[in-house]
Amino acid sequence: MLIIETVQEMRAWSDAERLAGRRIALVPTMGALHEGHLALVRAAQKLGDRVVVSLFVNPAQFAPGEDFAAYPRDFARDRALLEKESADVLFHPSAAEVYPEGFETHIDVERLAPLLCGEFRAGHFRGVATVVAKLFNMVRPRAAVFGEKDYQQLQVIRRMARDLDFDVEIAGHPTVRAADGLALSSRNAYLSAGERRAALSLYRALRSAEALVAQGERSAGRIVAAARAPIEAEPLAEIEYVRLCDPETLMEIPRIERAALLALAVRIGAARLIDNAMLKRD
Ligand code: AMP
């Protein structure tokens, strides 16, 4: 596996691969890799002849006071995991390489970005959209894989790619969970044993809502109340939002007509955890 740290070297490698007729698939990550990331790498291997995994803890997507400095970093471990998955390139640029002196251009996905997590994390999706657009220009992949755990992020990237004519196929990958249902996340590393038990209430929330919908319930009010109950029963958990939304526009909906996204964000100790489920009428 090649380790590339500069944009210039990344471009040269990518140009040569494309000239040879090979399809590049990109998996953007912030490192502290887990089985969810590795599942994305395997999906990328099916979409492309070469797989680039980027590892960049993007300062632009953290608001002041968020966990940028504390974000888990373990390059040696990440590198070994990616070697084992037979990734072709680990692209690991520095912050100065990505945001050189004088940087001042950003991408605003105007309608989607302020909703849900954007309401609580000012500037977050602006940072995400900007860095992903930059990664697309640095790596020039034909396909890129993103996890559905970060559903709003996936929709923001899809919108950006369409709006700005990026010739990149955006693939979503289902959320990978621990055996007990907790969605894998680099931020789970912040949880103590007791907090991790409390974090299972997010999964219980999704299951409660699904069970209610399976019984025929359509009202957002009652579905959201059923989802909130297991989280509210956990003294360590503090709900940021639990919402039923249109899966495309992410706007709140009063009833499930066809499909709806149940999205939630919860603070537990130092961790801010998100999860979601697509609820469908039978
Ligand atoms: P991150 O390193 O947290 O920025 O995530 C990098 C990519 O991995 C994003 O596309 C995430 O949506 C995806 N991802 C993170 N956790 C999971 C998971 N549990 N299942 C599937 N994809 C995930």
Outline:
The chain contains nine helices and nine strands. By secondary structure, it is an alpha/beta fold. The chain starts with a strand and ends with a strand.
How would you sum up this structure, described in words?
The protein is α/β, with parallel strands linked by helices and 282 residues long. Helices cover 38% and strands 20% of the residues. The protein has nine helices and nine strands. The chain has helices at 7-19, 35-47, 75-84, 95-98, 117-120, 124-139, 151-163, 193-214, 220-232; strands at residues 2-4, 24-29, 50-55, 89-91, 143-147, 169-173, 237-245, 259-268, 271-280. It has a six-stranded parallel β-sheet with strand order 1-4-3-2-5-6, sandwiched between helices. A three-stranded antiparallel β-sheet has the order 7-8-9, covered by helices on one side. Strand 2 (24-29), helix 2 (35-47) and strand 3 (50-55) form a beta-alpha-beta unit. Helix 6 crosses helix 7 (151-163) and helix 8 packs antiparallel against helix 9 (220-232). The termini are far apart. The model has no long low-confidence stretch (mean pLDDT 98). Bound molecules: adenosine monophosphate (AMP). Adenosine monophosphate binds at residues 29-30, 36-37, 40, 146-147, 149-150, 173, 175-176, 183-186. Adenosine monophosphate (AMP) binds next to helix 2 and strand 5.
Q: Provide the low-confidence segments as ranges.
A: none
What distance lies between the first and last C-alpha atoms, to the nearest angstrom?
46 Å
User: Which structural category fits the helices and strands?
Assistant: alpha/beta
Kindly state the percentage of residues in helix: 25-40%
Strand content: 15-25%
The DSSP helix count reads 9
The SSE string, one letter per element, is EHEHEHEHHHEHEHHEEE
